[in-house]
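Re: that chain you flagged

S.,

Sorry for the slow reply, it's been a week of failed gels. I finally had a moment to sit down with the sequence you sent. For the record, here it is as I used it:
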Amino acid sequence: MKLRRSFFARSVHDVAPEIVGATLLVDGIGGKIVEVEAYDHEDPAAHSYGGPTARNASMFGPPGHVYVYRSYGVHWCLNFVCETASAVLIRALEPTKGLETMAARRGTAEPRLLAAGPGRLTQALGLTGEHDGLPLDKPPFALYAAGDVEIAVGPRIGLTKAAEVPWRYGEAGSQYLSRPIRPRPRS
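Prediction finished late last night. Pasting the structure tokens below so you have them in one place:
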């Protein structure tokens, strides 16, 4: 079942774990989302925390759109906008469709290295700032609901603010995670 924008019109803390196991395709290329992080409007680590800017404007837009930003001037990061000023960072996916294209974009044929990490993921999917603000339920995106997945929960990665909060969710035992996390059943 395709996910609609209305799926995202609720708390990022409900959406984030439910995205793990969903299938994300960009122009038919992608796979199963295996790792995400939640960022809410009261979170000092969220780009929206200081209010709207030209860079984070998509986070203040309607739910079910993407927020794509450049991280440290090096790579792009993909987020799914939820309730106002909250988003789910897509950290990793298990590549299943378009592996040859992803390998060419990434310069490696090693499946584990194609989309394990936010920068690798966006490079493999061909995402850039041109995609910022686009709706998730229209081309080039296709997003399909998750099946039953055991969820692992842990602290977010690479942060200096609110790094201890357990808002990182992944598929327990997946070899495609950017880094391992401990399992916790989905409730």
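What I noticed first: The helical segments are 12-19, 99-106, 118-125.

Talk soon,
D.
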